[in-house]
Amino acid sequence: EDLTGNGYDGIVTNMSDSDWITSGAAIGDDSVYDYSGSTASDYSVSIAHAGGDQFTATGDSGSYTGIHVYLVNESPNTISIPNGYTSMDTDHYYGIFPVGISTTYSITYNYNGNSYANDDTDLQIAYRTNNAGRWTGFASTQYTSTTTLTKTGIAAFSGISATEFTLGKNEAPVIDTEVEIVSFGLSVRHSFALKDDGTVWAVGENNYGKLGDGTTTNQSNPIQIFGLGNVARIEAGENHSIVIKDDGTVWTWGQNTYCELGDGTTTSRTTPVQVLNLNNITMVTSRAHHNIALKND
Description:
By secondary structure, the chain is an all-beta fold. The chain has two domains: 17-170; 181-295, Regulator of chromosome condensation 1/beta-lactamase-inhibitor protein II (Methylamine Dehydrogenase, Chain H), CATH 2.130.10.30. 0% of the residues lie in helices and 45% in strands. It is built from no helices and 20 strands. A hairpin with a 4-residue loop joins strand 16 (240-245) and strand 17 (250-254). It is globular and about 65 Å long. The mean pLDDT is 86.
């Protein structure tokens, strides 16, 4: 139905999948795409802004059939800066649309040429889940090469759900002493605090990424594990960590040499991943290299 009032109504026919083709039309003001490959890492695309910075997305895992990266060369429709950030670049932003099943991807933001990043102290990436979402901050790795920020293990529609990205600056967050801490997860060299708002804060040694902040950098001040909320219980193993969310699902991160994360792999994780086929959990306990969960039955 033509809602303009001009009466140009029509009927869409040939709705079979075989009658459709992938469009090469730009998303945003400019976009690039890759629809050929056999493994996740085959799908990799880069797009650059006229000012000089460049954004690259590469498949990490999952069953890919394509990846589309776009540039929006204007201020986003929501410009509220993420909690803990002091500012955010509102000149332009980038987005990703992965095509496939259970896809995760890595991003590299080369900020060379972006005047916002002339002083790159405390520079990080801000993200949102969609064009209508609120911007959130997450920890990324700086200087994987000159003037870059890198983040791995991102998912579009689950876990740390993120599809649009820009630059931001944050100060090291501290735990508000007026907010109640409801429990702790303690291990030999790292620990966690669970706040009454369901957020988790981590401090200490970070080999294997066991703090869950997306890096392997030790932290001497508590940092929030972004993208992890509604947590009901937390436990810390020797080099891995495990939480139960309010919905009864279980999430883990850190060392996975002995399959302690329960995600079907032996790949260590620096950000939380959901344990496969485990729901309605009321309690977990963790030891050096294994965990035990109690279901509500």
